[in-house]
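Researcher: Re-running this chain for the archive, since the previous output was lost when a drive failed. Same request as before.
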Amino acid sequence: MAEKILAVDDEVDILQLIEMTLISDGFEVVTASNGIEALEKARIHMPDLILLDLMMPEMDGFEVIENLKQTPEMRNIPVVMLTARAQAHERIEGLSAGADDYITKPFELEELRLRIESILAHTRKTKYINPLIGALGGWFTEDGVEQFAEHLRTASAIQQHLLPQSEPQLAGFDISGLLESSMSISGDFYDFVPLGDNRLGIVIADVRGKGIPAALLMVMIRTSLRLVCREDISPSSVLKRVNDLLVIDTAPDFFATIVYGILDPKSMTFTYSNAGHCYPMLLRGEKEKIEELQTGGMILGCFGFAEFETETIELESGDKILFYTDGLTEAEFEAEGEFYGEERLEQVFKKNSNLPADELCRKIREDLFGFCGTNQQKDDITIVAIKASTSRD
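Model: Regenerated structure tokens:
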């Protein structure tokens, strides 16, 4: 589709010259002979660029620029002023008002072409957003983008505050977690929830999607789970209650995978339930073989009839459990098509299993980033590690 230019001048000869030149160059040209007509045609045609004479009857070019900049759907249309050579103060005033460039009269046609091409080269990538600007309340203006960025920074800070601010202190265990978001806000989360009898709730979850929608659902799930898990019920019952709440309040395409478990230092057990999440990895003492905690269940938030199972494992000194989200194993190598994968994760887990939990998490992250190279992170990545340091009585 040809790019559209609105040419505005009260001198008919100049207007016809511009029109013929630009049409021959492949542009669609709309003309106006005064400021009022210019604003009307700008609203109707939404041109890609406006050539605007400053000195016109009824409404001059300065007023036209002012009106354009005050109208959300038109404020980003680039404006090139047509001005007399001697009117330097007017050029300055026009540029200050928001014009993008100027051409002095009389002008060379080649200069006109070059100025137009230079400006359009900068706007072609975003010109299809212009019809949305008004509907989105000006978010794509400079002020709007900055305001939106500030909202994202605030949301990110709030979300960071919802994550554990320190490692939990639980007798007989070394526990740590980390989260690397692919955007400023995340759909992944992990949590450590103090429970009665010195027990600790362990949570890792991955909400479908990324960005703002995923972050909102993440907050909803975290809040619901923290409220329900204090009722001293089994992990499967907790997930069932949270699932029922989500099914009522969210659409079916908003869902999450989650592991929720209870770590009990008195009995040295981990009792857990899994809603469609990656199986946690268990490494017993100094053994070489990694086990998967394969008790599973349906994803959270889609089906009211979903049921979940509870499983309990006994832990001994030296046992380690690794939880992760699929953003880790599905991260891609620089050469597309090769994924980080569970096998590589198992190798890195075993190699660094004697390190403290926080260092183990960092080593996995470092290996992942080394594997991915310059590939941009496409999904959120969360890791939680638990190490048992004492045995049962």
